[in-house]
Specification:
There is one protein chain. By secondary structure, this protein is an alpha/beta fold. The chain has one domain (6-313): Ribonucleoside hydrolase-like (Inosine-uridine Nucleoside N-ribohydrolase, Chain A, Alpha-Beta Complex). 38% of the residues lie in helices and 16% in strands. The chain has eleven helices and twelve strands. The protein has helices at residues 15-25, 44-57, 106-118, 131-138, 169-173, 175-183, 193-196, 203-210, 215-234, 244-253, 298-313, and strands at 6-11, 31-37, 66-68, 122-126, 149-152, 188-190, 200-201, 241-242, 258-263, 265-267, 277-279, 290-296. An eight-stranded mixed beta sheet has the order 3-2-1-4-5-6-12-9, with helices on both faces. A two-stranded antiparallel ribbon has the order 7-8. A two-stranded antiparallel ribbon has the order 10-11. Helix 2 (44-57) links the parallel strand 2 (31-37) and strand 3. The protein is globular, with a radius of gyration of 18 Å. The chain binds alpha-D-ribofuranose and calcium ion. Calcium ion binds next to helix 1. Residues 12, 14, 16-17, 40-41, 127-128, 245 line the site of calcium ion (CA).
Amino acid sequence: MESRKKSILCVDTGVDDALALCYALSHEDLDLIGICASYGMATVPKTYSNTKHIVNSLGKGDQIPVYMGSEKPLQRDREYSGTFHGMDGLGNQNLPDISGDATPEESVDFIVDSIKRYGEDLQIITTGPMTDMAKVLLRFPDGPLPGFSMVSMAGAAITPGNCNLYSEANVMVDPEAAKICFESGVPITMVGLDVTRKTLLTEKELKVWQGYDSESAKILSKAVGFYLEAYRVHHPYLAGCALHDPLAVGVAMHPDLVTTIPMNITVVTSGEADGDTVENLDKVAEEPTTKVALSVDGKRFMKDFYAHMDAVLR
Ligand code: RIB
Ligand code: CA
């Protein structure tokens, strides 16, 4: 099963976002009409620049527009540790700033215009904090909601979080935004840690990419080397680093990669479980709008992912 909707990819580039970008930009099954880069794993000038570097390195700079997203969460402060992605988002390789005259939140207008133009033929893939999408939804306060759908790398249903026992990083960075999105009624496929921890990149694949001469292979090899080392230290049980964001792109193209359960989801925004994605008991009797991915055909996904990455990086 394939999906040929128009797609917008909202990233916070980020090492695995960079992988997701390469995969998305190289795939014949994705009709990508634009990319939005917000703050998230680094500041927005950095994530935007990183995104442009990846797009340019693949020779797509003239083909795919990149819009700058939000600078910070809706209500909270954002501090950066650099633990998994480096302070620059790509493993501390500090590529030149090419953010130019891009301005924060220009992404929101682009997404709103695309929703009005394409309606249910549009899907929005988010692989970072859901701040931009919350701002988009706040532009439609009275509904009816436009017919677009989302595929989001967000949350943890059964598996433990990666910030603490409860929360996944993209949700934890801006829980209020994630809550707006999940409670909005927009159909969302939640590609959370329950499935993304089952799709891994290892030293073996990195070694192959390190042997390639292309600019994109050089950028990604450095970034992935840093990411793998962080996983080795902080998540040694995984024996690799998780392909969180590429899997969201994979599911957007091929929804049958995952099996899902229907549920209405909300987000805890205070206390010990701050940032947890849980069933919305206020809507337990209503038609569910979120599909929560609980299992994945990891072999099929990784075969397709590595084949496309190999073709684009060599
Ligand atoms: O929890 C994993 C998510 O956090 C991924 O999107 C990764 O890029 C980071 O943003
Ligand atoms: Ca990300």
